[in-house]
Specification:
Number of strands: 2
Strand order of the largest sheet: 1-2
Helix content: 40-55%
Order of helices and strands: HEEH
Number of helices: 2
Largest sheet: 2 strands, antiparallel
Radius of gyration: 17 Å
Amino acid sequence: MVAITLLQAKDQLDAAVAALTLARQGSYSISTGTGSRASTPASVDSILKDIAYWRAEVERLSPRRGPSRVYPA
């Protein structure tokens, strides 16, 4: 299994969001670092699923922040 970096996940999310914008305007073709895709407005559901997947991956790969604690002076 190939590991995906946070940067790659963010790039894929950005490409999916761009694809959604273009799909809502009509058919399109877009190239990414890992390939290309072409679509028609009918594939908006597929693009929305891609966006959800890549958002989850970005969240999973992002550094966790612990709870903030404020100590009285």
